[in-house]
Amino acid sequence: MNKGRKKRIAAAAVVLALAGGTATYFLTRKTEQTQQGPTVQVERGDLRETAAATGKIEPHVQVEVKSRTSGEVVEILVKEGDTVTQGQVLVRLDPLDAERDLASAKVSLEKAKADLTAAQASATVAQIEHTNKKGDEALAKKSADLGLGNADAVRTTGSTTKVAAANINLKNAQVIAAQTNLKTAEIAVQDAETRLKETTIYAPIAGTVLDIPVEKGTIVSSALTNMSGGTSVLTIADLSDLRVIGAIDEAQIGKVSPGQVVEIRVDAYPDRVFEGKIERVSPLGKEVSSIVTFDVEIIVVDKNKGLLRSGMSADVEIVTSELKDVLLIPLLSIETSGRSRFVRLPNGEQRPIKTGTTDGSRMVVLEGVDEGDSILASAPASSARSGGTARPQSGMGVMGAPPGGSRR
Fold it and tell me: Which residues of 140-156 are buried (b: 16+ CB within 10 A; e: fewer)?
């Protein structure tokens, strides 16, 4: 009896142990399949793909004003920040030397006029003398023909007539020389008047005065005669037309084209985004440190562009594509195995997916999941330890994702 009872007790213990082990197995498996980690939901939204660049705020038109003549600055009529109109007086130079040169030129002009008058009078006298000599020669010939004169008188009057004719040519040449001297004197007066006008410097364009590197008393050199290009007097820019010249990497330039929308950010206004538009994409790349970039010219079209200042550093994001109402999932939730991509459901099940473009943090899903589905926010650590080929999807090099991704 004792032996049979012991056998029954032992058998019951084995059954209980097996039941407990089985229950533990199924409970553990159920727990493992319940959830493998934090989850996110597949959601619909908008995705924008961008290309990033940096540059500086620059006016489209900026003029460095220089003087056409040399002289001393005696008056500065504007200050930095002033808005000026085209033709407005900016700076005056000392006009004393220019006034003296003009006066001297006018004296020379009057002398040239007098010399011309004298030359013309001399030519008139020579013409009269020539007429008289021709009359004397004709009379001498007629007298000789009538036997009242001799051949010597004819020869003498003929010679004087030739001398009178040559004198006419001489006087006419003197008139031409006097006329030339008069024209030269007139040009000298015009030049002197121009030099005097150039002592007053006018605004070549309408705009804002950015810089005045000279002061009253500064001696400026002429931009026309000085080998170094002359002295800069002012810098004026049209701040109503601001541009940003950014450098785009060659890997992104294929997606950039004129007319695309651009978001511009500057450090001075960290919470504000200024709107821009691409005006021009350079067809020629520039290589610096083995990196090829292309210049992109961006027009600032924001209504508040008056807040910007020339020379500000700017970060720009060019919207190269924009998708509306698409399925989106985080990049970290995507795993790859060979050429396949998939996500994991909360119970650990792999779900193959077909993907589209990315903004560097999220990716468009074309097939495999629906809106509202829950997926693991990132690949479970167990898959990385299992020795498989599955790996989380990063934001670098994913179907055209821009380096650094998008800010959105």
Answer: bbeeeeeeebeeebbee
Is there a single domain that holds both residue 188 and residue 215? Answer: no
Distances in whole angstroms, Cα of residue 316 to Cα of each of 360, 367, 395: 16, 33, 20
Q: Percentage of the chain surpassing pLDDT 70?
A: 81
352 assigned to some structural domain: yes
Q: Give 374-392 pLDDT, tens digit per residue.
A: 888 886 655 543 434 445 5
| Residue-wise pLDDT tens digits, 195-219 | 999 999 999 999 999 999 999 999 9
Domain end point (choices 172, 198, 224): 198
330 is a domain residue:
yes
Query: Residue type at 40?
Result: V
With beta carbons less than 8 A apart as the criterion, state whether 324 and 48 touch.
no
What is the distance between the alpha carbons of residues 178 and 172, in angstroms, rounded to a whole number? 10
Domain that holds residue 388: 47-57+241-392
Residue type, 335: E
Are residue 85 and residue 219 in the same domain, yes or no? yes
CA distances from 127 to 117, 119, 133, 200 (A): 15, 12, 10, 51
Grade residue 86 by pLDDT with cuts at 50, 70 and 90: very high
